[in-house]
Design a protein that fits this description.
single chain; about 450 residues; alpha+beta; Nucleotidyltransferase, domain 5; seven-stranded mixed beta sheet; five-stranded antiparallel beta sheet; 11 helices; about 25% helix
């Protein structure tokens, strides 16, 4: 009897030698056939199933859909390795698990099970407007996407300051207090603090659904003065652009050689006005790069006709990255950091296109792993603030209590799902639809709601 290398009665579809059958006559062409010819073998001999070379595999017409994962928690609420939707559906049907989160879809087991875990690395592409994230195991990418930051904290603070100033102007006189003006150690401006907290919040949320052992964050540190003036060196860093000038006006006069920036004529002892290229209500600053010096008539003409100078270059993203680049190691234990130039080189070696999620995949040391579907997440403001009671004991009619449903939350009427765009008439009506064509229902018709939170997942 002929001796076999080993008996193999099951050959996986994904195996590289899938077309090596027990009989050589059955392997005369690839298995992707369109005719109805039947291949058969009359001999009863069983031949070796270990050919020397790989057989060609047919991928024509193959569905190359990106894999989707379902995230699992054990009985104690700790994350396990994710599974396929088919397996999750089976666990739910058998009553062995329950759904605890819709976005991302997460289930929790009701029975004890094995807790074998693979090494998972989380890559974070930190940024001022977008955050990329990707969690990678040895063989697969388990989650990937981009978070679009809200970025309206500064505008909301300006609005709140306006309302607060209006309220205080209507109050009786009280002596100013200065002992409550101190700032705690490590204080950051609110707009920067919120963006940084969003990075930490995203990392913590991902660690709640995946057993992540390693976190790598891409950071950056910029020399803003070097960007603005490549020739700066030595004591010029301490002196600044206004060094040697009496005030901002004299600096602008020297910078423009005593000429108006609109008409180009000399001032000749005429009064000069300072103009903000980017207005205060547009988050414009008092930096010299945002200021122009004009004649009085030119300044009035500029505002009447709505003319605008070109907006100066904004260095807010660079400043933000320079501020937070050391804070990750203070708030995340055992975090590793990398830099953009390393990501750039590694991404080009793999031949991948530039994107936040792709950069995160490279940061997490991804290379040949199977990619997963990218998820777009939008950060939203929850509109939960309620105006406080005034000294007469009642709140203004603008908003007296929290909304039952916030924008971007889901609600169902007659079994059909809608996306909330807001509420009006003291919560009696709920709106949906596009921005231009909004429609509404009575809130009493709503059957159930789903609270999205501050992260809206576009699954």
């Amino acid at each position: 009897m002929q001796k076999l290398d080993r008996r193999n009665t099951y050959i996986p579809v994904s195996a590289s030698q899938a077309y090596s059958s027990m009989a050589l006559s059955l392997n005369r062409e690839p298995a992707c056939r369109t005719d109805r010819e039947t291949l058969s073998e009359q001999s009863l001999k069983t031949l070796s199933n270990n050919p020397e070379v790989n057989q060609p595999q047919c991928k024509e017409g193959q569905n190359l859909r990106v894999s989707v994962k379902v995230y699992i928690l054990n009985l104690r609420g700790k994350p396990l390795m994710p599974c396929s939707p088919r397996k999750a559906k089976k666990l739910l049907r058998e009553g062995k698990a329950i759904v605890i989160k819709r976005f991302p879809f997460t289930i929790q087991l009701l029975v004890p099970t094995g807790e074998t875990k693979q090494k998972i690395t989380l890559g974070i592409d930190s940024g001022f407007e977008n955050i990329g994230f990707s969690a990678v195991s040895e063989t697969k990418e388990l989650i990937s996407g981009t978070v679009k930051l809200d970025g309206k904290t500064s505008e909301r603070l300006t609005e709140r300051r306006m309302y607060r100033r209006g309220r205080r102007n209507r109050l009786w006189y009280r002596k100013p207090r200065f002992l409550n003006r101190s700032k705690p150690e490590g204080w950051l401006p609110p707009s920067i603090q919120r963006r940084y907290d969003t990075h930490l919040n995203l990392i913590n949320r991902l660690k709640k659904i995946l057993p992540i052992q390693e976190t790598i964050v891409e950071i950056a540190n910029f020399d803003i003065q070097k960007i603005m003036n490549p020739d700066i060196s030595g004591t010029d860093y301490q002196q600044g652009s206004l060094y040697g000038y009496q005030n901002m006006r004299s600096f602008l006069m020297a910078r423009e050689h005593g000429k108006c920036q609109l008409c180009g004529k000399d001032f000749k002892k005429k009064p000069s006005h300072i103009h903000h290229c980017k207005q205060k209500n547009e988050s414009g600053s008092n930096r010299a790069e945002n200021l122009a010096i004009l004649h009085q008539k030119c300044h009035e003409k500029l505002h009447k006709k709505g003319l605008k100078f070109s907006n100066p270059k904004n260095y807010k993203p660079n400043t933000f990255m320079s501020i937070i680049h050391k804070k990750f190691k203070q708030n995340i234990p055992d975090v590793e950091t990398t830099y953009g130039y390393i990501t750039f080189v590694n991404r080009n070696k793999l031949g991948l296109e530039k994107s936040h999620s792709t950069d995160s995949f490279v940061i997490a040391n991804g290379n040949i792993q199977e990619r997963t579907k990218n998820t777009d997440i939008k950060q939203v403001h929850r509109n939960n603030r309620v105006l406080q009671l005034n000294r007469k004991g009642f709140a203004p009619s603008i908003k007296r209590k929290k909304s039952k449903v916030n924008p971007e939350d889901l609600f169902w009427i007659n079994g059909k799902q809608y996306i909330c765009k807001g509420m009006f008439n003291k919560g009696q009506y709920i709106t949906y639809g596009s921005t231009k064509n909004k429609e509404y229902f009575k809130f009493s018709q709503v059957e159930k709601t789903y609270y999205q939170g501050s992260f809206v997942w576009n699954m």
